[in-house]
Write a structure and sequence with these properties.
Blueprint lengths: L1 E9 L2 H17 L4 E9 L2 E8 L2 H11 L7 E10 L5
Antiparallel strand pairs: 1-3, 1-4, 2-3
């Protein structure tokens, strides 16, 4: 498995949460190879880890992230990492 790690800065917390729940999560969960996703927030920053069955699926999803970022956040970066353990 591989994960896409996404970092954002949050400009509008209420709108970011609404967009996450109504747009981002439904779209990501339909992506090919999707396994699980976790979206976290601390202060004005967000970090998500979205797990996919394969590196190809994770890289493909990573390439589409920039197009799906809501206006209420600024994308700081994405990276694809291998999942080496989980519980």
């Amino acid at each position: 498995m591989h994960a896409v790690v996404v970092r954002v800065s949050i400009k509008d917390g209420e709108e970011a949460t609404r967009a996450l729940q109504e747009q981002v999560v439904p779209a990501v969960s339909q992506a090919p190879g999707f396994v699980a996703g976790y979206w976290t927030r601390k202060d004005d920053g967000g970090l998500s880890m979205i797990v996919f069955e394969s590196e190809d699926a994770a890289r493909s999803a990573s390439e589409r992230i920039r197009d799906g970022v809501p206006d209420s956040v600024d994308l700081e970066g994405t990276e694809v990492r291998e999942v080496v353990a989980h519980a």
